[in-house]
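The material for today's practical consists of a large collection of protein records. There is nothing in a record beyond a sequence line and a structure line. Backbone structure tokens are a discrete shorthand for how the chain folds in space. Nothing more is needed to start thinking about how sequence determines fold. As an example, a complete record with its sequence and its structure tokens follows.
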Amino acid sequence: MSPLPSHIGTYEVVRALGKGGMGTVYIARDPAIDRLVAVKLLREELDNPELRERFSREARSAGRLRHPNIVTIFHVGEHDTHPFIVMEYIPGDTLAELITQQVSLPVTRKLRVIEDLCRGLAYAHKSGIVHRDIKPANILVDHDGIVKILDFGIARVGEQGLTRLGTMMGTLNYMSPEQINQGSADHRSDVFAVGLVFYELLTYRRAFPGDSFAVLQNIVYNEPEPVTSLCPDLDPDIVRILHRALAKDPDARFQQLSEMAAELVRVRKRLRATGDEQLDEGPLTPVAGTSTDIGSQTGPGATLDHPSTAAPKSPYADAGQLVTRASELLESARTRIADRDWLQARDLVTQIERLALTADARADLAPELDAVRRDASAGEERAAAVKRSIERTREHMAAGALDAARDALEDAMAVAPDDSAVLAAQDAIRVAEAAEKRRREVVQGVEAAIRAARSAADHRDWTGALE
């Protein structure tokens, strides 16, 4: 075992965290602002031009992204000629570990995890970056239940995020058919990988297990075991979303992960409204006796190297860490506000208030917290107003009063023109209007025929009248 370095660059090494496919990850202290960070150092035995380029690509790819669901890169440098990357330290578990432990979670909590994964990747795609190696080991869930995407080491950066692959890149079990066929692989390959992660999170089984040859054949030609045979009570909408993400043809998948996230939000909110699924927020609790300090571990099968000294009792033991965590939670709250998820935004504000922040830090955050609270309250009021307008619209439609239904819907459209319930009501009114138009046309036709028959009879044209 290599001796623990005392420093990597200017960062004071606290302990080793784990080994991954490219580097060893250490917890270190940044003396400049007194906070804990994770430092990934390229392993000496793996140092070659190809891996240096991949290491550099990770820094370039993730370093330009700023999103609550993507690990933040702070700095890059060299230590004894070996490159290293400094990123935020995130106490938590990889999704691979939670799946291995088969942590018991309500289905709405699983939907929340995939929603966050979709949001982070959608942001990366919008920035022209395709991850190409999405798998449970590269998805971290921190102690507050927030998802962070790790390891952009084989990400592709381009004007359209499109690449013609000459070799297969990624982890075999989570590749898309087009990656295996060495065809054109774009951001929709990440959509397929998200579908595979979703399948595994739902069932605690890989969609395509087995040896390399079997995996290759199955991904390209076969379907995974039906998720309904493993989860018989799964909501049909979840099954539909999963099947669409796992379509072999990229054109048949979700074309944007923001679209998939919106579908998941709709299903999750509906399930929560039934009262059966209420525990989809907050931290994920692993099985007792397992490590929850995996942080920025990378790659499958990574091992931990814990020193004899005990880890801090709190994952956010210093003021700098607490402020960083509060800022992350606040950014997530803003994202929830943008998604109209008012309840989750308020929950995140509550989590911030529970942090042991200093008085100065709390005062600095107070204006932004107040703004989020106001936005959440206003959003809840608007949502209630929309719900009332939709109910009035439905009542008027049931009574056949389309003009009154349109008037009621206009109130809702003024508040939330792109709300799914408003759009559905708008479509229902259009269908009813079209049916009413057809009814009027039929009536007018019948009335015209009756007038013509009477006219023919007046002229003793009995044949014409009968026709």
Q: What stands out?
A: The two ends are 100 Å apart (CA to CA). The chain has a mean pLDDT of 79.
